[in-house]
Amino acid sequence: MSRIASARVIVTSPGRNFVTLKIETDDGLTGLGDATLNGRELAVASYLSDHVIPCLIGRDAHRIEDLWQYLYRGAYWRRGPVTMTAIAAVDMALWDIKGKAAGLPLYQLLGGASREGCMVYGHANGATIEETIDNALHYKEQGYRAIRLQAGVPGLATTYGVSKDRYFYEPADADLPTEAVWSTEKYLRSVAPLFEKARDALGWDVHLLHDVHHRLTPIEAGRLGRDLEPFRPFWMEDPTPAENQEAFRLIRQHTTTPIAVGEIFNSIWDAKDLIQNQLIDYIRATVVHAGGLTHLRRIAALADLYQVRTGCHGATDLSPVTMAAALHFGLSIPNFGVQEYMRHTAETDAVFPHAYSFAGGLMHPGDAPGLGIEIDEALAAKHPYKRAYLPVNRLEDGTLWNW
Ligand code: GCO
Ligand code: MG
């Protein structure tokens, strides 16, 4: 038995905020878990420090499933992003410990490798179609097999997914939410031309993806999906807000463009109807926001029954600890689809030395025991927390919209 001797939360901001849980056992093992919830970081930090950690001390670190149930059922107030992120952090740290105790990389404990590596998609963006394609060509040269395309919308000052820096995109960019202006009409006119030109420049041997970021109505999404069909996108992501799951029936009636949903889901109950009714093709729930590996494996197993594959969220606000966990998960499950890979800055990578690597469009978690991730606490302490919010969106007449 390894008893949990201590657990603490480390908040650091090497370019952006990350919340990390570090658990130590009485026989000298340590485990790391990511607890970052973009724009609401300190709520999870407090949930862990004030309400979860006191319950962990002295418990057997190897009883992962039991501890998961204890934190989920035991809170009485189930689900929700803060709770499920906190549970995920504990779960990841315990799997890390189990891997280290076994002397095996985590994917071996999850059943071993089902593939050579996890196909990842990179983000190509630009103020114009030409800039985006230029950037996509750069990704292709680096060996990427899948590329997400987002371009500025003519007539709008800013657009989701488009940054000043072409290689690093950080939407949580201000200490109070910035306000962006959105026009569905202008946006809808701009996407098909982007994909048409992208196919001309990049050819057909690379997967092309696009994120709508929850902004359309179902019928608008159906139209966009249909407009994109000739260019065979790998997926259209988050076409409408997924609270209303019935909406996806309407989208399905109008297009065969594959649909990816779920980066803001936090439990199997958010995804169950979409999966069982075969209304989506890829489920994007992540280790950090959907209750850890224990729960995400359950979601993936349900999805597998309905030929839904995974496409886990992997933006920069998911720390390298989540990236490591996602790669062990992705390498081992049968129904892996693709993993998002939005590279972290060198500053972030220095705080989180890791065993995972990229080659030829695939990523591998490495063979270090456990997750294969460390935190340099001395360096982390040099980057204090800095409040940062995601933007909000308004229509051109001032109506608040989905960001
Ligand atoms: C994606 C996402 C992100 C989110 C971000 C919010 O597909 O990568 O939509 O860009 O906006 O993770 O914190
Ligand atoms: Mg997204």
Automatic annotation (TrEMBL):
The keyword Cell wall biogenesis/degradation does not apply. Its EC number is 4.2.1.8. The keyword Magnesium applies. One of its GO terms (biological process) is amino acid catabolic process. Catalyzes the dehydration of D-mannonate. Has no detectable activity with a panel of 70 other acid sugars (in vitro). Pathway: Carbohydrate metabolism; pentose and glucuronate interconversion. Belongs to the mandelate racemase/muconate lactonizing enzyme family. GalD subfamily. It is an enzyme of class 4 (lyase). This is D-mannonate dehydratase. Keywords: Carbohydrate metabolism, Lyase, Magnesium, Metal-binding. InterPro entries: D-mannonate_dehydratase-like, DgoD-like, Enolase-like_C_sf, Enolase-like_N, Enolase_C-like, MAND, Mandel_Rmase/mucon_lact_enz_CS, Mandelate_racemase_C. GO terms for molecular function: magnesium ion binding; mannonate dehydratase activity. SMART domains: MR_MLE (SM00922). It catalyses: D-mannonate = 2-dehydro-3-deoxy-D-gluconate + H2O. Its cofactor is Mg(2+). Residues 129-258 form the Mandelate racemase/muconate lactonizing enzyme C-terminal domain.
